[in-house]
Amino acid sequence: MKKIILTSALAAAFTLGTAGAALASQYVAYEFPGFAGRSVVISACGMSNIPFHGSYKWYGDGQSGRMYNQPNAQGVAHFTLDSARNAEQRTPVGWQSIFIVC
Question: What is the pTM of this model?
Fold first, then answer.
């Protein structure tokens, strides 16, 4: 009986921990304008190069995103996506990399 209770408690703790970890800002890069074609979701903390530049959607959920016109977040940040607001652009963008601040 104690094993079942302990297992259930561990499963509940794992579920809560996993659900909390799912909340993070996300940058979705699309291959073509109008949110079309292939896409990639970037949500990792730190620097990520952006493979597609056709259009984007940003889901601000706690972390801001610094946008760079150069790969590897080189140079100065061109724009910062808000940590608490969503944003999108249906037309091509020139950003080559993002640094998600965690």
Answer: 0.77
Specify the length of the chain in residues: 102
Burial of 26 by CB count in 10 Å (0-12 exposed, 13-18 middle, 19+ buried)? middle
Residue with tokens 């509940």: 12
CB–CB of 58/76 below 8 Å? no
Cβ atoms 82, 101 nearer than 8 A = no
> How far, in Å, are 80, 81, 98 from residue 101 at the CA level?
10, 10, 9
Tens of pLDDT, residues 56-101: 999 999 999 999 999 999 999 999 999 999 999 999 999 999 999 9
